[in-house]
Design goal:
- This protein has 2 domains: 42 residues; 103 residues, Immunoglobulin-like (Sandwich).
- The protein is 29% helix and 36% strand.
- The chain contains 3 helices and 8 strands, in the order ααββαββββββ.
- The chain has a 4-stranded antiparallel beta sheet, with no helix packed on it.
């Protein structure tokens, strides 16, 4: 039978290496669990684009000889659009020269009960100039022009046929 004082002496003598081994095992485990928990929290706070879609948006714009960006921000009122507050969502498209000019985007941040949204349309993300502000009635095609580019919108409520 081993003397308990000898065992206690070995543990006391080797406590630093034992602590290092325990930490080497625990730190990676705690890190992995923490990362997985944070990823779950982040994923649960983001809308699921396949199950929470509220509207589909189709934009038609004629491509030009050079690539350009189109930016469209959606608001609940004209005043919000002018003051750039309470935006529902912003959409940014790259229009390439050989594109067919039709883009369909699925939105999940537009309230389902709205019948009209206000849009701010612009080409330069930094200055937001030149821009035009107008409204889109849900279910009807709306056409406008900005810098001689004709832009049409059709926003419809999303009907999940799945």
């Amino acid at each position: 039978m081993e003397d308990t004082s000898v065992t206690k002496g070995r543990l006391r003598k080797n406590r630093k290496p034992i602590a290092v081994v325990i930490l080497l095992i625990l730190i990676p485990l705690v890190t992995i669990v923490s990362i997985n928990v944070m990823n779950d929290i982040i994923r649960n706070n983001e809308p699921d684009p396949y199950s929470d879609i509220s509207h589909s948006l189709t934009i038609w714009i004629t491509p030009e000889e050079e690539e350009f960006r189109l930016h469209v921000d959606f608001y609940g009122s004209e005043q919000d659009a002018y003051s750039k507050t309470n935006s529902y969502v912003g959409v940014h498209l790259t229009v390439e020269p050989l594109d067919d000019g039709e883009y369909t985007i699925y939105l999940w941040t537009i309230p389902e009960d709205v019948t009209r949204v206000w849009v701010k349309i612009y080409f330069d993300l930094v200055t937001e100039e030149p821009n035009i502000i107008g409204d889109i009635e849900i279910g009807k095609t709306t056409t406008t022009q900005l810098l001689n580019r004709e832009i049409s919108f059709l926003m419809e409520p999303w009907l999940d046929n799945g």
